[in-house]
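hey all, quick one before standup. I had two proteins in the batch that finished overnight and I want to keep them in one place so we stop losing track of which output belongs to which input. First protein below, input sequence then structure tokens straight from the run.
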Amino acid sequence: MDGRRALVIDDEVHFRYFLRVLLEKAGFAVKMARNGIEALDVLRSWRPDVITLDVMMPEQSGLTFYGAVCRDEDWKRIPVVMLSAVPISVREHAFATIGLTQGPRPALKNRVRRKPCLRSSTGSFPNQPPPDPNARRSPMPKKILTIDDDPYIVKYITEVLSDNGYATCSASSVEEALSVLEAERPDLVTLDMEMPDEWGPRFYRKMSMNPAFKDTPVIVISGLQGIHLAIRNAVATLQKPFDPEELLSIVNRVLESKDAARKAMDGE
């Protein structure tokens, strides 16, 4: 399957990244979209060999997106795998309301529990509005260092973070992490416990001995039991497999608290 492309469309971040990792392990190059609007933007510049499609999404539903694909002479040849908890009878009725006699043949039913989605789309279907040249520039994004020896976990975490506005850097060993720490000076670190050269707690001790980094918050993410005891000063611990929405919530809270403390010290 080398060289094949897949477009994953789902508003639920956990399921979206699960599919991405699954398809990449099978040799696909993968792009993701959170709704029909984003998916159409991807299709205009990047043609996939297959599309996985959720039905119930904000901004633009999977059914409306599927209708647009079926009406395009080029896109309608792309196979679509619809993954949804919506009953087939309901989907068939919905297809009829948008002028289609039938949708994709039944394949898989999405049994993932629905969670509040992460929305990041602007503009009206099908075109995005041009950026406002007079809009105020956003501040530099916060940077997060991800340390883990598993490249799939690193990719998973960094893409969850970058998709939500954070700058990212990564390392797969303690030695590399110390170098990246000096070069990138991150605002927060996510740290695995078990790595081939040294364990995470040793990295944390070395980082804490450096005055420039001793106050950098650390989130421990590990598959080991009892990880809450490994680094007592960690701002949070997450057990693998973890919920990316929980990670984002912790990151947001910790960095907002850090900013508030800095402003209080500066008298702002």
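OK second protein, same deal, sequence then tokens:
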Amino acid sequence: MIYIVEDDSAIRELEQYALQSNGYEAVGFESSEPFWQAVHTTPPELVILDVMLPGEDGFSILKKLRAAPSLRRLPIIMITAKSSELDTVRGLDCGADDYITKPFGIMEFLSRVRAALRRAEPEACLLYTSPSPRDGLLSRMPSSA
């Protein structure tokens, strides 16, 4: 399950539609309150997080997620209109796995989601890799069979 925390309904619905159209389960939230309720009920596999939100901002949410032992390794992608290098560095240094600035392309958005999920589940990479004798990396990986 992917959770989207975005106060702009048009962007939230676009992200949710793109994810669902590509086979992902996604739920959108316009603020932190319903997001936290959902997290306590069903922890997500990935969070798409806006920075500028009403009430609790995205950086505060990010810091709380990273402080929770059960959510520390949860992949988080920040998507925001804050596009300066300083904003990007702050997001990544606070614990975001990726940082996308608005406006963004849907194909890149989906590619970054796939990459974040792959990094969160390293063994899932083997599902997308066909073994080859020329592939030195795979030959060094332990066999699961």
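Flagging for whoever picks this up: Confidence is low (pLDDT under 50) at residues 123-145. The CA atoms of residues 118 and 125 lie 6 Å apart.
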